[in-house]
Amino acid sequence: MNQKEIGELRRRFRPEKNAISRIYGCYVNSRREVIAYVDGSLGTMPQEEAEKYLELLKKALSGTPGKNLIDMVFSTRQVVDSEEHRRLMALRDSQLRDREIREEFYRKVIDSLEMDGSNYLILLAHDSYDLPHRDRNGDRQAGDSEEVFSYIVCCICPVKDGKPALGYCPGEQEFHSCLSLQIVAPPELGFLFPAFDDRTANIYSALAYTHKPDQLHQEFLDAIFHIEEPPMSAGEQKEAFESALAQSLEGACSLGVVQAVHERLTLRIEEHKESKDPEPLAVTAKEVGGILRDCGVAEEQVEAFCQSCGKQFGEGAALAPANLIDSRRFEVKTGEATISLAPERSYLVEDRVIDGRRYLLIPVDETLEVNGLPVE
């Protein structure tokens, strides 16, 4: 799914926009016991309460594709005959009305999920989206729709104890210490099924959400989707990319080479933002190999890098540059010091050997400060 398709669904999570009739779920304690069930009509809830439920579900469609939002692609074998796909289809096709299917799903989540000993709330909702016509420019057109997109969305929210505070008691006209209620925090993870690809249902794919890109909760993803090739978190992708560079290039992995890779990928990210292209930005190992060649890296080392990436990510895999580098800063670290610069200023740092010792050099302009104090 691209950003435009995700945004189109996100706009539905308002009381007047969606066709969600009920909110389902269950509240689970740290011992994996169900404390209470949620089964409420959205239409009869107070508006403020309904909006809070919708806001939580909407959060499961937030963040950056490829980082917070991960495509979960089923194999043909899974779609034809697998427990995990049958379960998701049954939830969708029953519009979550089948209590037995819901409870089977809850138990699958509870048995697999590790939430660091905290209580949490599982929420489920079904929506039917009567897709409006759109012209080639994406503008909405009048007329009957051609398709109804039927989908489910799930989010899992930690529930945290409120902090003790002084509260005013009107009857006694005094302030006393009181404990606020347990608070439902924004979702830690969730998913949408089926995916909304090219503005139509794709039962071969789901969209998983994680609040922390470096924590995908693989145990949850495996239990619910059981994908044959589990996705790598953003942190794992960055680590694998850096490992491929360091091991393949060996002595050729110089400051200048790393600066060039960082600069070129950062430029791609900025150009993609400016273009407002809804499709996620992606590069291949071969494209990065081209940057290495431009830096004078030997062909055998470039080939070794591409082969290493093929083993780590899969042959010809599309890589998200934002997961490979930190485009907001450029950091150089030694055993005694750390230098952090804006990416567009990374060229200011150079390494040089002086009198047999290696140094990092940074040119100084007219101003020089130490802890905020101007010095000569």
Textual characterization of the structure:
This protein has about 375 residues and is α+β, with helices and mostly antiparallel strands. It contains eleven helices and 20 strands. The strands form seven sheets. Strands 1, 2, 3, 4, 7, 10, 11 and 14 form an eight-stranded antiparallel beta sheet that branches. A two-stranded antiparallel ribbon has the order 5-6. A two-stranded antiparallel sheet has the order 8-9. It is globular.
Task: Summarize the model shown.
The protein is an alpha+beta fold.
Overall form: globular
How far apart, in Å, are the first and last alpha carbons? Answer: 55 Å
Question: What is the total tally of β strands?
Answer: 20
Helix content range: 25-40%
Most strands sheet:
8 strands, antiparallel
Structural class: alpha+beta
Strand content of the residues, in percent? Answer: 25-35%
Overall mean confidence score, pLDDT: 89
Whole-angstrom Rg: 26 Å
Number of helices: 11
| Poorly predicted segments | none
